[in-house]
């Protein structure tokens, strides 16, 4: 029997993923703040910080996409011991399901406030399935 991930597990996994994405930005802001506190802002430090931030964010996104595509897990899902599986086969979903539909298509749709609210609130259904789960034919379960 496959045990579904709880809404709390899914929520904290998402918070961890968002936190990881925010880390390079926070480091950049801190670096620029420290630099400007003691001297005139140096353009080279600001440009270097921005470049490092962009590279850091791209690296995190790439790692997340590889994990989601191959394992059905983001870093947050690994930490929370949950994973994305095909709703019928109960095995890790395909790259099309996990990466293209759940991640990329959902990423575009999530910018729409009514979709975001509906997608987020559906997690409280008995089966904890969201709109992107329905579209991709996936469920999120406890990892063994």
How would you describe the overall organization of this protein?
The protein is mainly alpha-helical and 144 residues long. It has one domain (7-142). 67% of the residues lie in helices and 7% in strands. It has six helices and two strands. The chain has helices spanning 7-38, 43-71, 75-80, 95-109, 113-121, 131-136; strands at 82-86, 138-142. A two-stranded antiparallel ribbon has the order 1-2. Helix 1 packs antiparallel against helix 2 and helix 2 crosses helix 4. The longest helix is centred in the N-terminal third of the chain and has 32 residues, at 7-38.
Largest sheet: 2 strands, antiparallel
The gross shape turns out to be elongated
Note the quaternary state here: single chain
How much of the sequence is in beta strands? 5-15%
Helix residue percentage: 55-70%
Number of helices: 6
Mean pLDDT: 91
Intertermini distance: 11 Å
**Count of discrete domains:** 1
- Secondary-structure class: mainly alpha
A few lines on this structure:
This protein is mainly alpha-helical and 144 residues long.
Write the layout of secondary structure elements.
Blueprint: H1 7-38, H2 43-71, H3 75-80, E1 82-86, H4 95-109, H5 113-121, H6 131-136, E2 138-142
Antiparallel strand pairs: 1-2
Identify the notable features of this structure and list them briefly.
144 residues; mainly alpha; two-stranded antiparallel sheet; elongated
